[in-house]
Design goal:
binds iron/sulfur cluster; 6-stranded mixed sheet; 2 domains
Length: 357
């Protein structure tokens, strides 16, 4: 028995609720792509195939969501429901929780299954925001994301961001939304509207600010993924940033529907392997990566100093830090590579990590 705590009970209910049974298939949130970043380096963005291999092979997550994560999910779900109600009351909500399911591209193994948040009828409004005209034949999608904290303000809203002063949506969210754009024909036909773009609508639940980015595809249903601010400016790095770090900075390239679909096909190949594929992110950066990321400003001075001084510190990709399968993939944390190459035994690694063995 423990003291009656309705908060804890709600978290229990969230953890144990019946989830909508998945139709199977690959998820839009699992999209990934190799792009050329703002400095011309080939860079993977999006989901790690090794993590997807674990998930799609039914391996139990070793690092599942914590109670705090459930609280954070709840804020996101509650916010989305409330905004839907507001748009419904304004007469512009066309659909919520929109199912996207089916084959995408030419590889029959690439069956995508996911739910996009909201479709609104396109509308005009006055300076106060009141709707003055609703279009019956035009709509747009909304993918709603709640966020919070210093890094969200910097990365997404552009506060104190020298590389992207206008802010930038997260690559994972851009790709997820691009998948919905590729799959939207069925919804256009069903509702009798055109849906030329989606918005990614970020709401910072900590300070109440919000920002939207417009995502569209250069060829309508495929092509380059175009990312703009709400008033139509292309999201691109500030060239002045290049001067400050002594290296030219250019817009990223290679973020295309073809490249994303090629990665899904590659994942389908890897799913046929008996063992997990190579790691695609680093729990602790190797020497080359750490120095390169520091040079282009993707690793802060503090983090770089920590990386230099603490050989056991997990200074690496956030994808690994937050990975549900981290303990499968890196069973002895940052010393896993040394164990795999025979430099250390598991017991020696555990002892170095401070465990009693
Ligand atoms: S820990 Fe990192 S490399 Fe391993 S599966 Fe997860 S994201 Fe991929």
């Amino acid at each position: 028995m423990s003291a009656t705590d309705p908060g804890k009970n709600a978290i229990y209910a969230m953890r144990n609720r019946d989830y909508r049974v998945s139709r199977g298939g690959m998820r839009p949130t699992s999209a990934s792509c190799v792009i050329q970043n703002e400095f011309g380096d080939d860079t993977l963005v999006g989901k790690c195939h090794r993590a997807e291999w674990y998930r799609l092979n039914g391996i139990k997550a070793t690092d599942p969501p914590t109670d705090r994560s459930f609280g954070i999910f709840a804020a996101g779900i509650g916010m989305e429901d409330y905004f839907q109600t507001m748009w419904k009351n304004q007469g512009v909500l066309l659909a919520g929780s929109v199912i996207n399911y089916g084959a995408v591209g030419n590889d029959p193994r690439v069956i995508i299954s996911g739910e996009s948040d909201i479709i609104l009828r396109d509308f005009e409004m006055d300076d106060d925001g009141q709707v003055i005209r609703v279009y019956q034949d035009r709509a747009f999608g909304i993918e709603m994301k709640t966020c919070r904290g210093h890094f969200a303000q910097k990365e997404i809203f552009g506060r104190g961001n020298k590389k992207y002063p206008m802010g930038k949506p997260k690559m994972e969210h851009i790709m997820q939304t691009a998948m919905y754009l590729m799959m939207r024909k069925r919804h256009e036909d069903h509702y009798g509207v055109t849906i030329p773009y989606y918005l990614i609508f970020y709401f910072d639940v900590a300070d109440g600010t919000y920002v939207s980015f417009k995502i569209s595809l250069s060829n309508g249903y495929d092509g380059d993924i175009l990312v703009e601010t709400l008033d139509g400016k292309t999201v691109a790095p500030d060239p002045v940033y290049g001067l400050t770090i002594g290296e030219p900075v250019v817009p990223w390239s290679g973020l295309t529907t073809d490249n994303i679909l090629a990665r899904y096909s590659e994942l389908a190949d890897k799913l046929e392997l008996p063992d997990p594929p190579e790691r695609e992110y680093q729990l602790r950066y190797n020497d080359t990566t750490a120095r390169r990321k520091f040079a282009i400003g993707d690793l802060s001075k503090t983090k770089f100093a920590q990386w230099e001084k603490k050989p056991l510190a997990e200074v690496g990709d956030w994808q690994c830090s937050y990975c549900d399968f981290k303990s499968h993939c890196y069973p002895v944390s940052v010393l896993t590579a040394d164990v795999e190459s025979g430099i250390l035994t598991v017991n020696e690694a555990m002892a170095e990590l401070g465990y009693d063995v």
